[in-house]
Amino acid sequence: MQTPVHDRLRVRRHPERGVYDPAAIAAILDEAYLCHVGFVSGGQPMVLPTIHARIGQNLYLHGAAANAMFAACAGQPVCLEATILDGLVLARSVYDHSMNYRSVVVVGTAEDVTDPDEKRLALERLVEHVVPGRSAEAREPSEAELRATRVLRLCLAEASAKVRQGPPAESEADRQLPVWAGVVPLRLVPGEPEPDPTMASAIPVPAYLAAQRLAGRG
Q: What is the CA radius of gyration of the chain?
């Protein structure tokens, strides 16, 4: 099943790279640690990075209640983008160098989340998005912390992905040049956890962190 292709999000440059399947779009968003949000504040276009989390057909963002970006975004049209870089594509010619990537663009109206249960769930998913298993161990937000936090919801009804994979795309003439060509794969891998020196005792590294380190991401 493919999501309806809205004209403003149809991939026109290399249309063969356009992906409109909701499951594929969700998978990219779930794997990407960060997204960038485009919005207008005081007539000035802005793009800022933040953490996101997906629950079904909705994306959730969080920030301080007084966050200027969230104040500008609430109830307004925004554009959200997330990219996973998979490799450097080295061609025999400078012109044909590229990157392998998976990216998603979402447009829609950012809505304030006011329901306390939805807000708590969104904050839990944001933690789980970064470190699966963490929310079961860490302290839940207090009522005061919930009041100090703003959560926005963005529906995925209008979204598309663009994906590039594979080796360089070159002319047959360039393929005869005596220059190395190919792909340098890239992967985001967690390092060895570094304990907080203020811990009162030697608390072992949680199993979910060890599992995340082995699995990596990407």
A: 20
| Residue range 7-189 in CATH 2.30.110.10 | yes
Whole-number pLDDT of residue 212: 76
* Segment 105-148, tens digit of pLDDT: 999 999 999 999 999 999 999 999 999 999 999 999 999 999 99
In this prediction, residue 214 carries a pLDDT of 66
Q: What are phi and psi of 193, to 5 degrees?
A: -60, 135
- Domain map of the chain by residue range? 7-189
CA 144/CA 147 separation, integer angstroms: 5
In the predicted structure, residue 201 carries a pLDDT above the cut 90: no
Contact (CB, 8 A) for 25 and 156: yes
Query: Average pLDDT over the chain, rounded to whole?
Result: 92
Q: Give me the DSSP letters along 55-115.
A: ETTEEEEEEETT-HHHHHHBTSEEEEEEEEEEEEEE-SSGGG-EEEEEEEEEEEEBEE---
Q: How many residues does the chain have?
A: 218
Instruction: Return phi, psi of residue 35, to 5°.
Output: -130, 170
- Bridge-partner residues for 151, per DSSP? 62
* Cα–Cα separations (whole angstroms), residue 57 to 21, 93, 153, 154, 191: 13, 42, 10, 9, 32
